[in-house]
């Protein structure tokens, strides 16, 4: 069970005991009838729950439950049996608005003699119970909802009440209250209450209690228009958004969402009713979810319009089970970063609202994984984020993704689409616990070769950095990469998806704040081709390769340019060291790795330029800090992966000795480090200092010589100065070790070879030094002769020189102060002569 519910409120446990303890007037008629007569009417913004029940004398009572102090409160009693269809209380608990049907079954016969309005809407003073005002007396049903301002405002202000009519209009009443006799609060207006028309000719409306927004749809010519009115704490309201919809809404009647719950209407509702809901999130996501009972009973079709992205997705799911009871409609749940589509007994579909472009980010579950415990089979509402209201049972739940079940699903998944979706979903929740990160790394280490369509290490590193950095700065989520995948060709078994381009919403108010600002940012990114805004490593790769090739050709850039790059790298490594004051388990050498420091510095410089282009309103110091944190966290993340691997295989933290063979655990660690290197090369990401030395050390211990050399020649293993020195010191000069040393020695980069050559006291190495000395001296001589007048040059080019003549020439060059090895001991013309003679004797077998 991927979704976990925790009970927040239950009528039977939180209200019934309190009712039974009250006096006979307030007590339930009979305990057996409580399920039918006791039900929730509304949930207010502050979380307080309004419910109604039938008292002992068939009178109708209204109560209030406060979830903070777990206490119930009796609000009002009607001295007759009425059917309450809507109820709301203001923030100060001084006014109660109630809408009810006047006619019961017994009274319908009397209506022929004495006609009365079907629905009566009252405004009642309840601090204390006092005057009652009639707001509406009509033959159509009315819903009521008080607006809730920000907290800590002055007491007894003006209250504002929305009246939603089945005659397709919405009004706002303004109610002034005053305090009398210190305790009594009464309505100040003696005549008609001032009111405004908020919306008209609507066919659908939804109330967002948390953000105090009213969404409604009005038909216009051949299209339907979705509109939104935002109510502000300063008692103003604005039409803030309009969106043209391509959804067909003909013959749906009038639908209200989140305006309370009418038990009798739910019982009479036709099974083919339209289910339409709007969900928003703090990231600026704006989704319209729609489903309707299908013409074909063995399949379900629903659509989610990602209005903040400019496209919609329509899903068709064939139903496998025919033995499960028929349900009225699928339920849509708002999980902030995800929208959940739930059909009890059949499936649970989690859609990523922030990155809905790739289907592989959606989790589609069936069977036991899709089951949600404690939910009734119908009448499920999601009144606010991460909340479920089971209207029939009268229970409220907090809903969240179960991290343990998510990890278990990750382990059990056989499809790459499921693995990728579960991995990204899990990484979203890593911020809550580091233990989850360790479990993910454990899964990655066991499944490096199981995923054929994506690299789990690349996805883990990139997505972890994305979720670690994006909450800190607005718009950063549009500029940093969140995946290594550019497209996805795979399909999700059991589901058909059709993608359609839709019109973008139009914001009617400029300079918005909060959600509307982020929505506007999302819409701007769609207009200006969002994928091109994300940081790309292609330019970084080209520049890095160019600098490395210039280094080999000894054509370095200006000193200031390189100094700035290496200064960037120095800041990153200092920041990384400051985070890890405790000694790491992995024996990484703190060495001077020119290539990696160059890549670190380049990444800092280019990421900084990328952010500076798109975050003009953010200061340079802030961007410098963001980039420093990003690259430091990248290196730290790789270190944490290796730390987890070392703990998993119980490897020692001491420096590896190269004269011993590696264990099976070391070979497993070597394999994972090879995959880390492959992932880093694929994304052009730097590696922490000492990575290549440790990787090479494990390779020497674990691989046979021919495989080791093959890895070196193909770039899987990279030779470093530290590793070469350790190799010469740790291994003696046995025949096998000499072969290894010589093979490594001939593959060393020239700069490293010059530094470590004098540490190996061996004829082969002496021969190498002598040859190199002759090469450099003759090269110096050639350059010097090239600068002399033409008459001083040799008239005849000598291809091979006798040894004595060669030594005389070298000695002459040395006398001119051109010896490149003058700082090294015993490397001179005599050394070359002795080495040449020894080598000749070895070749002749003397």
What is the strand and helix layout of this fold?
Blueprint (H helix, E strand, L loop, with lengths): L2 E8 H10 L13 H4 L1 E5 L5 E6 L5 E7 L4 E8 L4 E7 L5 E7 L17 E8 L2 E10 L3 E5 L12 E7 L3 E7 L1 E4 L3 E4 L7 E6 L3 E5 L4 E8 L2 E9 L5 E9 L9 E3 L5 H6 L5 E7 L5 E7 L6 E8 L4 E8 L12 E4 L3 E6 L3 E6 L10 E4 L13 E2 L5 E4 L4 E7 L1 H10 L3 H13 L5 H13 L9 H14 L6 H4 L16 E6 L4 E2 L7 H13 L10 H15 L6 H21 L14 H21 L5 H29 L15 H20 L7 H12 L2 H9 L7 H10 L4 H11 L4 H7 L6 H25 L15 H13 L13 H16 L2
Parallel strand pairs: 16-20
Antiparallel strand pairs: 1-31, 2-3, 3-4, 4-5, 6-7, 7-8, 8-9, 10-11, 11-12, 12-15, 13-14, 16-17, 17-18, 18-19, 19-33, 21-22, 22-23, 23-24, 24-32, 25-26, 26-27, 27-28, 29-30, 30-31
Helix pairs in contact: 4-5, 4-6, 5-7, 6-13, 7-13, 10-12, 11-12, 11-13, 12-13, 13-14, 14-15, 20-22, 21-22
Pfam families: GSAP-16
Protein name: Gamma-secretase-activating protein
InterPro entries: GSAP_C_dom (IPR028010), GSAP_fam (IPR026172)
């Amino acid at each position: 069970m991927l979704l976990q519910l925790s009970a927040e409120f239950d009528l039977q446990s939180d209200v019934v005991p309190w009712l039974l303890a009250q006096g006979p007037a307030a007590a339930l008629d009979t305990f057996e009838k409580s399920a039918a007569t006791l039900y929730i009417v509304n949930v207010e913004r502050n979380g307080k729950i309004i419910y109604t029940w039938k008292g002992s004398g068939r009178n109708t009572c209204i109560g209030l439950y406060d979830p903070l102090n777990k206490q119930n409160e009796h609000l009002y009693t009607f001295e007759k049996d009425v059917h309450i269809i809507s109820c709301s209380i203001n923030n100060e608990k001084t006014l109660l608005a109630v809408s009810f049907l006047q006619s019961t079954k017994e009274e319908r016969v009397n209506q022929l003699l004495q006609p009365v309005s079907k629905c009566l809407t009252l405004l009642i003073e309840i601090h204390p119970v006092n005057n009652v005002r009639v707001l509406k007396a009509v033959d159509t049903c009315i819903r009521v909802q008080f607006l809730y301002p920000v907290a800590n405002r002055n007491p007894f202000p003006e209250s504002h009440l929305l009246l939603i009519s089945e005659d397709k209009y919405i009004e706002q009443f303004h109610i002034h209250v005053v305090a009398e006799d210190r305790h009594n609060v009464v309505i100040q207006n003696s005549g008609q209450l001032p009111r405004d028309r908020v919306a008209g000719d609507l066919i659908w409306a939804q109330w967002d209690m948390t953000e105090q927004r009213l969404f409604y749809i009005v038909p216009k010519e051949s299209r339907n228009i979705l509109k939104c009115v935002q109510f502000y704490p300063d008692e103003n309201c604005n039409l803030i958004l309009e969106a043209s919809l391509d959804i067909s809404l003909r013959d749906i009647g009038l639908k209200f969402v989140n305006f309370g719950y009418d038990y009798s209407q739910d019982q009479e509702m036709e099974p083919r009713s339209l289910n339409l809901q709007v969900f928003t999130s703090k990231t600026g996501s704006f989704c319209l979810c729609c489903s309707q009972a299908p013409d074909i009973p063995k399949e379900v079709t629903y659509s989610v319009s990602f209005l903040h992205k400019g496209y919609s997705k329509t899903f068709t799911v064939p139903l496998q089970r025919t033995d499960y009871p028929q349900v009225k409609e699928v339920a849509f749940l708002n999980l902030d970063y995800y929208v959940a589509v739930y059909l009890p007994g059949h499936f649970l579909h989690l859609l990523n609202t922030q990155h809905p472009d790739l289907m592989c980010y959606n989790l589609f579950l069936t069977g036991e994984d899709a089951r949600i415990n404690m939910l009734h089979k119908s009448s499920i509402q999601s009144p606010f984020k991460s909340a479920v209201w089971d209207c029939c049972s009268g229970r409220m739940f907090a809903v969240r993704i179960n991290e343990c079940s998510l990890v278990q699903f990750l382990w059990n998944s056989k499809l790459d689409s499921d693995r990728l979706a579960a991995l990204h979903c899990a990484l979203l929740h890593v911020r809550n616990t580091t233990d989850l990160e360790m479990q993910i790394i454990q899964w990655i280490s066991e499944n490096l070769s199981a995923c054929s369509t994506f690299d789990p290490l690349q996805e883990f590193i990139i997505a972890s950095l994305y979720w670690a950095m994006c909450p800190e700065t607005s718009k950063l989520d549009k500029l940093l990469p969140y995946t290594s995948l550019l497209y996805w060709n795979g399909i999700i078994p059991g589901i058909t998806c059709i993608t359609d381009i839709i019109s973008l919403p139009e914001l009617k108010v400029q300079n918005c704040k909060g959600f509307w600002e982020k929505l506007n940012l999302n819409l701007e990114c769609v207009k200006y081709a969002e994928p091109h805004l994300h940081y790309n490593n292609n330019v970084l790769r080209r520049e890095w390769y160019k600098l490395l090739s210039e280094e080999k050709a000894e054509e370095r850039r200006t000193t200031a340019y390189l100094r700035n790059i290496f200064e960037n790298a120095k800041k990153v490594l200092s920041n990384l060291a400051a985070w890890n004051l405790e000694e790491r388990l992995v024996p990484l050498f703190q060495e001077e790795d020119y290539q990696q420091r160059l890549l670190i510095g380049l990444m800092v410089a280019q990421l900084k330029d990328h952010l500076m282009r798109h975050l003009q309103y953010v200061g340079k110091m802030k961007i410098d800090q963001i980039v420093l944190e990003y690259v430091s966290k990248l290196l730290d993340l790789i270190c944490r992966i290796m730390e987890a691997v070392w703990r998993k295989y119980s490897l020692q933290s001491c420096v590896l000795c190269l004269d011993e063979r590696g264990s099976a655990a070391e070979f497993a660690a070597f394999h994972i480090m090879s995959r880390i290197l492959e992932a880093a090369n694929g994304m052009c990401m730097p590696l922490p200092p000492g990575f290549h030395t440790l990787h090479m050390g494990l390779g020497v211990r674990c691989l046979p010589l021919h495989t080791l050399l093959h890895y070196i020649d193909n770039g899987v293993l990279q030779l470093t100065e530290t590793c070469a020195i350790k190799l010469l010191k740790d291994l003696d000069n046995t025949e096998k070790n000499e072969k290894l040393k010589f093979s490594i020695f001939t593959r060393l980069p020239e700069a490293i070879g010059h530094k470590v050559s004098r540490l190996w006291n061996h004829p082969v190495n002496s021969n190498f030094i002598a040859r190199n000395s002759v090469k450099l001296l003759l090269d110096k001589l050639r350059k010097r002769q090239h600068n002399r007048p033409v008459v001083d040059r040799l008239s005849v080019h000598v291809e091979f020189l006798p040894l004595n003549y060669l030594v005389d020439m070298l000695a002459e060059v040395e006398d001119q102060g051109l010896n490149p090895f003058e700082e090294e001991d015993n490397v001179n013309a005599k050394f070359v002569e002795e080495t040449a003679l020894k080598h000749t004797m070895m070749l002749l077998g003397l």
